[in-house]
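Bug #77: duplicate submission created two jobs. Keeping one. Sequence:
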Amino acid sequence: MGSSRRKDRAARSWRLLLGLLCVLLVVVSGTVQIAHTHADRLATHADCSLCVAAHITVQLAQTPVPAPPATVVAVLEALPPSILPSGLSTFALFTRPPPAV
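Kept job's structure:
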């Protein structure tokens, strides 16, 4: 029983460590992207992979066609509201405790 608890605790600690590492990686990479500058103050450089990744856009080959409108007709049945008891029920077969001696 003790070894399964240790395994659970070790698995939890590894998950926590991995989660913290991922959060730290996102924070550090965001900070690097925000603080990234060049000496000549141009917005983008073709040889800088960080600049290229920041300014990349998706080039559409064709404009997407919207889906044709469709009318939906369905019959909905309304269920009656469930009736819940409004008060607490009492136990009618209660026996009194024995008399004190």
